[in-house]
Amino acid sequence: MEPRHLADRVWLFPGDPDPGAIRPAVAVVADERGSVLVDAGHSPAHAREIRAGLAAARLPEPRWLVYTHHHWDHVWGACAWPGVEIVGHEAGVAPLRAEAARPWSHRHLRERVREEPRLGPSYRARALAMDDWEGFAVLPPTRTFTDELMLPTGVVLRHVGGGHAPDSTVVLVPDSRVLLLGDCWYPPPLHERSPTDGPDLELARSLLSDHVEWYVSAHDEPLRRDQARAALGD
């Protein structure tokens, strides 16, 4: 897997265009002091592909791993990133600890879907992502924040919350004029979604800024500022 250069020191590993795969894009903010990895990949195998791509592109190894939120497709690769500091919003700690306590296996996935059929799409994607459970662990953040946090490389984390996940965080790279959105403006996950739930366009509009040139959502193509404004009717 090769990274795509987006702007200045921001690189992207594209997600899977098949929505059934639930495999998001992963961003890397390259820095000789240690890169910032934004989301972990949806599985250890995905994370290993990204690590190989970083090495092939001769990009600096990650020192920090930022969770944009706690959903599985953004965090399940974390156990394949040894030595990084995992940073996330404090609201993600409790759900990740609960996830960490589950006896993850293909059998457990099948049992959970029998108990709650609405979990089917998510859990089928998890089963496809995981070919081997040996050494797998769900890892909560080792460093948390409440409102805003700046990492030593100048990358800024801002909590925005929203309907998709209470811990949703956007990641601003000011010198590259890039805002990494995670899933913050998306509707809630399918198994939690009501018929009236839709994209949070108000939240998306609130993030528009003349100081940002690129907006990157985890499951969509990056948009330039003029494209984002046009899409939002702003």
Strand content bin: 15-25%
The name of the CATH superfamily reads Ribonuclease Z/Hydroxyacylglutathione hydrolase-like
Radius of gyration: 17 Å
- What is the overall pLDDT average? 97
- State the name of the first-level CATH class: Alpha Beta
**CATH architecture assignment name:** 4-Layer Sandwich
Number of strands: 13
Question: What is the helix/strand order?
Answer: EEEEHEHEHHHEEEEEHEEH
Strand arrangement within the widest β-sheet reads: 1-2-3-4-5-6-7
Largest sheet: 7 strands, mixed
Topology:
Blueprint: E1 4-7, E2 10-13, E3 26-29, E4 35-38, H1 44-56, E5 62-66, H2 72-75, E6 85-89, H3 93-100, H4 106-115, H5 120-129, E7 143-145, E8 148-150, E9 156-159, E10 169-173, E11 178-182, H6 201-206, E12 214-217, E13 223-224, H7 225-231
Parallel strand pairs: 4-5, 5-6, 6-7, 11-12
Antiparallel strand pairs: 1-2, 2-3, 3-4, 8-9, 9-10, 10-11, 12-13
Helix pairs in contact: 4-5
Protein name: Metallo-beta-lactamase superfamily protein
Domain Metallo-beta-lactamase: 23-219
Organism: Micromonospora humi
Features:
alpha/beta, 7 helices, 13 strands
Q: Can you describe what's shown?
A:
It comes from Micromonospora humi. This is Metallo-beta-lactamase superfamily protein. α4 packs antiparallel against α5. The chain has a single domain, classed as Ribonuclease Z/Hydroxyacylglutathione hydrolase-like (Metallo-beta-lactamase, Chain A), CATH 3.60.15.10. The model has no long low-confidence stretch (mean pLDDT 97). The chain is of the alpha/beta class. It starts with a strand and ends with a helix. The longest helix is centred in the first third of the chain and has 13 residues. It is built from seven helices and 13 strands. The chain is 25% helix and 22% strand.
